[in-house]
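User: ok so my PI wants both of these folded by tonight, can you help

Assistant: No problem, let's get them done. Here's the first:
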Amino acid sequence: GAALLRRAPPLRAAAALAPPLPAAADTEDMAGGDSSPPEPRLVVFSGGTAFNCVAQELKRFTTRVTHVLPVSDDGGSTAEVVRVLGGPAVGDIRSRCLRLADTSTREARAVRALLGHRLNSLDEAEAKREWLDIVEGGHALWEGISAPYCDTIRGFLVHFQSQLLRRASEGFDFRNGSVGNFFFAGARTFFRSLDAAIFLYSRVSGVDSHTLVLPCINTMDQITLGAQCADGAIICGQNEISHPADPEQGNVVDKTGRTPVLHSPIKRVMYLSNRTKGHIDYTAHEVFPQVHPQVVENVEGADGIVYGMGSLWTSVCPSLALVGVGESVAARDCPKILMLNGYPDRETAGMTASGFVRAVTDTLNRVGTDDALDHPPSTYVTALIAPAEGLVELDDDEVTALGVPIIRLSNTLKEGEEGDIRLFEPPALISTLAEIVGERRDGGDE
């Protein structure tokens, strides 16, 4: 261990790579330079899995996108990093940055492959052996990456390893570990800043400079998500709400929605003081962390707001529940599009399309808290895009009564063992989004 640390590349130069994230006004300046109209500014509230399939396609429409993601994921390899080193969960952020990474050159693809690599998911000894091979610089994944990139990336991986060695008594399970998560953790603990770690990761992986990936909460602390069910029970932990892990599968979690449905429907999500994961906990009390100020700033300047498809309660709503988000979304006069899931999952079983609209509305209104808002659904959702023949019931009359028009997309992809699951076809979805936002901008919104 000591020899490994002595051979580690220095990190002092890398510190200069981490200025504060650019603000909305800065991204507008960067987008200028010619007489053509600037690309529209979008804010996307989503998680780190489902919306990834259209994130690359969205870049064809506009690169001026602020992706807002939760920092409460406590499953998979993220949970192991949080258990040993503490801090917020960055798995969703890492996943989005990876999907947005540059792939235009051989070296860019090699960097993406390295940061996207996962270790053996079942054999703990083999996973640790592979990790040491990577951090020592001998793994084949380093091929095609130039010395400056190698020194920068490996320096933070070594720093992550040094943090683990300082806490050796805790042990660390490397199974299914994400190299990108380890790099993130190394950067965050080195800079003592989540924003700086995101900036560094974005630059190393070649994310477009006009694109921002923001945590909904800028914190160095662990964040615990809770869900209050209709029967009053509170479920602690995002993973326990959405897709509990199988202990026999290491750090692998099932995100297919095949896990058993919840004992009672979710009424709302909240942040909890209790950090002990468990199915039901009556002792945890609600806390109210501050929203990242740049989330509000970018919403206030947005040409369009998107609620992405994915885990509704644990991916989209955690960002919407924060004080200040509902106010800023309500005040912004622009298209606000909800993308409906193609099929129900564990946390939305039995919900109809109108139920999704109400869930977004109630979360932004902070229903159930002392400072709740009272805006109607049409203030927060101006259009609902749904895949034709999707498995979530489209109760047209109910959605229309809420003041929200439905746009059905017939261009869908078939998935599932029987081909009965319909998902959005990325080009068709982004084309529809572009039409909605483009029509509003052409109509002289500003």
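One down. Here's the second:
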Amino acid sequence: GDNTQQTVPLDSAMIGQLLVLASLLATTSAFASSPTDPCVASPPPTAPTAPHKKTAFIHVDIQKCFTNGPPKGIDDDYAYCNPPATGGTDNCTRLGSLGVAEGATIVPAVNDLRHSCLFEGVFRSQDYHPADHISFASRHFGETPFSFADGPLPFVGYPIELACTKNSTEEIKDVACCLVDAAQPACMIGANGTTVCTQDTDPENPACSACVGPDANCTKMMQGMWTDHCEQGGDSGFATGLEVNDDDVILQKGKNPHADAYSIFMDNPRLHYTPLNDMLREEGFEVLYIAGIAFDFCVYWTAIDAIHLGYEVYVVEDATASIGVPNGDNTTSVDTAKADMLLQGVKFVSTEEVLTSECPAGTENMWTYARNRRKSRRL
């Protein structure tokens, strides 16, 4: 009547048999639970995907001052919206103080683009000039500076050499430029090759004294002469119909009366910086998609500066509008700008290509990102 269980000792042969049996049972179980044919080789492991690079959408100067519209039914926006000096007839509906042909037509594409899953932030630049800004032809050549208004300059955007100070702070608010050389070649276009320029002696402009003489520690650059445009008290607001969001970052440029900035990163001599690069770096952005006005000036300068600052840069070409200043050799500033961008490594894409791009895995929707990380601010 002893119910005590007896332990049977296992020798090495029995242990080996049990291990073989366990292996067979495991294999059978795997085959039974596998949804695939065990006779078919398993697919190779998936290659790891490249890590997502944080991407921003940059709006360059999509403002009322840069938009025009042709009459209904007119296909050739350029001919109607630009003055005769740049090959147009100036019959456009004159909406902007420096209206660009097709400027208003890019707004729908830009509105669609801002919702792309690629973007985790939207940054909008705003040309925001005080009266009598250094880039205004009227400051240097009177109220009718261009030839189509009987002025001395052959076309809008005509470049004149200015001398600019160099400031150790490297902040754009601390730089100044002045027209000090009235005998430069660009000025010698008057009757019989006489100068059309007058040396600027503005006592409020530090460059007008600091950049005079052979020992001046200044730099020189060619500055386009434009119509008075995008004034702070004028039509510098964002373009009609442009979709904006409270979380967008707005960078106002051209506020310094004595310095201009085509690029949203730095001044035209490329010596002094806006706050934007620091902000993008702080937030971890590596890739920039750029749209806006004008392709051959502010978009171009922004894209080139972004490349030099180390970003991967894409220009959404059909979401830009161009001015097309003549080069004098049957080409325009559009040809020059695109060739240089390609040479420097800028890539060109279309709106459709952006909107049909595959969404990066694990990326946040940009509105969620914006609400969590920052509120709208002006730089």
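The radius of gyration is 31 Å. The beta strands are 55-60, 122-127, 158-165, 177-178, 218-225, 249-253, 287-293, 312-321, 347-349, 377-378. Good luck tonight!
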